[in-house]
Amino acid sequence: KPDRNIWLDIAEGYREQWQFPNCLGAIDGKHVLMQAPPKNGSRFHNYKGTFSIILLACVDANYKFVLVDIGAEGHNSDGGVFKNSIFGQSLEKGTLDLPCPVEIPGTTKMLPFLFYWG
């Protein structure tokens, strides 16, 4: 699990490479198609009519995986997978060791760190 210094390095990468300050990662989910397991009911059946497991990932500015959750059943939504993932639960509980908001240069306004959901 990344610590505060790693999160700050990731944010610096987004600022330098993409001019996106305070971004700690881009999150997205993808369905990975699979053959239907025997006697699975509709657990792996997704909204596109195929069978899948879900890969949920957070990447840094260079597309390197920072956090992943693999194996949720295809009938779940990305949001549902995120909410039930260790990543989502840690974010909700405030246990990800995220950096504190920082002052926007030239102002007295504070800008929190964020994740982009793609």
TrEMBL record:
Domain DDE Tnp4, by residue range, is: 27-93
GO molecular-function terms, A-Z: metal ion binding
State the signal peptide span: none
Residues spanning the membrane: none
Pfam family name, one: DDE_Tnp_4
Q: Which domain of life is it from?
A: Eukaryota
Going by the UniProt record, its keywords in alphabetical order are: Metal-binding
Cofactor(s) for this protein?
a divalent metal cation
Q: What is this protein called?
A: Protein ALP1-like
Q: Report the source organism.
A: Trichonephila clavata (Joro spider)
